[in-house]
Amino acid sequence: MNRSRHGRGRLMLQPSLLLIMQQGPAHGYELMERLKEFGLGDIDPSLIYRALHGLEAERLISSSWDEKDSQGPPRRVYHLTPNGQEMLAQHLEELKKIRQKIDEWIQAYESHMKTDK
């Protein structure tokens, strides 16, 4: 079961990061904490930072150093770009299609279970 949970996490990591940043800029630790809202709190931080680097390489997000609000060393703050906004909308459409397929599968299963009784 772990394998499927981690697979789901990878599937949802990019859209979840983009969605969080749509709500405002965030630093890495904040992103990790907010991922818990989507059931993704158990993803290895190294995977999150790799995803952030990939999103930045694709120009879906940008980052800058925040030296003011941190009591310790400067923190990198991630921002959603217009390209990231477009990708987020594409993720939404894809997730709606996946949800429809899941609903169809559940309906077929439940229908079959009723006929077996």
Automatic annotation (TrEMBL):
This is PadR family transcriptional regulator. It comes from the Bacteria. It comes from Pelolinea submarina. Residues 17-89 form the Transcription regulator PadR N-terminal domain. InterPro entries: Metal_resp_DNA-bind_regulator (IPR052509), Tscrpt_reg_PadR_N (IPR005149), WH-like_DNA-bd_sf (IPR036388), WH_DNA-bd_sf (IPR036390).
